[in-house]
Amino acid sequence: MTDRPDTPRSRRERPAKAALTREGIVAAAVAVLRAEGLPKVTMRRLAQELDTGPASLYVYVRNTAELHAAVLDELLGTIGPAPAEGPWRERLEGVLTAYALMLFDHPTLARSALTARPSGPHYLNLIETLLALLDEGGVPPAQAAWGVDLLLQHATATAAEHAAEAPAEDWDAVHRAVRDIDAGTHPHVAALAGELLSGEPAERLSWALRALIAGIERTAVTH
């Protein structure tokens, strides 16, 4: 006697799918980012993850650019609050460094963040934190407002640059070109070759942030 084939289950017996929400879509996008990188965070890929059609997602997210901005905003929520103790400049640098490190952990997102336009609660919380620290330091409001954009832009660009993962031979070629420069034609480059190539990324980021903060304090905004 042969076994009877399994009787197909009625569609009515299957568990009901969870209702789509913007929060659920973004959470699925973050999961795909962590596992596969930002290029895989597409409407079609998320539709597969959420067992729905791509058209259904557009009710909650207008396009892929908005989706990537929402993913960035979600990850901004992983950045802790500003340290409670210490000079305001050091605390400001700490928040910006934490932001850059978050992007270092997600190389493909770092490059996208250069043009992404997040507008969610975590982004606004980050801006509020930075403005509060600049205000604590007595930075004039207009300089603080423009300065926040400059600080985030530099931290983002730094993360994107180091996320590019250029081949080692490319970096070697740059180093050789600087070290072997003709002092007769490029005296300043030759004199500072060691300094031009010195410093770890974290050291350069720290110096750049401190230089920018000092400049923001002293440079008036003119309209």
UniProtKB/TrEMBL annotation:
It holds the Pfam family TetR_C_1. Residues 19-79 form the HTH tetR-type domain. SUPFAM superfamilies: Homeodomain-like (SSF46689), Tetracyclin repressor-like, C-terminal domain (SSF48498). Residues 42-61 bind DNA. The keyword Chloroplast does not apply. InterPro entries: Homeodomain-like_sf, HTH-type_TetR-like_transc_reg, HTH_TetR, Repressor_TetR_C, Tet_transcr_reg_TetR-rel_C_sf. Transmembrane segments: none annotated. The keyword Transcription regulation applies. Keywords: DNA-binding, Transcription, Transcription regulation. This is TetR/AcrR family transcriptional regulator C-terminal domain-containing protein.
